[in-house]
């Protein structure tokens, strides 16, 4: 295993050294991509995914910025 140097010193893996931003969310799949942690939301929240009518939705389609906060 290799280690990389990040802002907090040596980390166990490459991802420890970086922050990830979703930008405007147009290319990030809400359910399919691993954009929170290392597991897709559809696998973590099986019941919610099965009930969702927006299984192929992008992040941008599921909320709005209101007063600087995502709702």
Question: How would you sum up this structure, described in words?
Answer:
This protein has 71 residues and is an alpha+beta fold. The protein has a domain at 23-70. It is built from 2 helices and 4 strands. A two-stranded antiparallel sheet has the order 1-2. It has a two-stranded antiparallel ribbon with strand order 3-4. The termini are far apart.
Tell me the total number of β-strands.
4
Q: How many helical stretches?
A: 2
Which structural class is indicated by helix and strand composition?
Answer: alpha+beta
Strand order of the largest sheet: 1-2
The averaged pLDDT comes out at 79
Order of helices and strands: EEHHEE
- Which range does the strand content fall in? 5-15%
As a whole number of angstroms, the C-alpha radius of gyration is 15 Å
Fraction in helix: 10-25%
The multimeric state of the shown protein is single chain
- Main sheet, how many strands, which sense, barrel? 2 strands, antiparallel
Q: Segments where pLDDT lies below 50 for 5+ residues?
A: none
**How many angstroms separate the termini?**
40 Å
Note the overall shape. Answer: globular
């Amino acid at each position: 295993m290799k280690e990389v140097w990040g802002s907090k010193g040596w980390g166990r893996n490459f991802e420890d050294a970086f922050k990830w931003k979703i930008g405007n969310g147009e290319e990030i799949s809400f359910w399919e991509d691993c954009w929170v942690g290392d597991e897709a939301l559809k696998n973590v929240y099986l019941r919610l995914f099965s009930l969702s009518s927006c299984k192929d939705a992008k992040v941008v389609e599921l909320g709005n910025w209101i007063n600087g906060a995502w709702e």
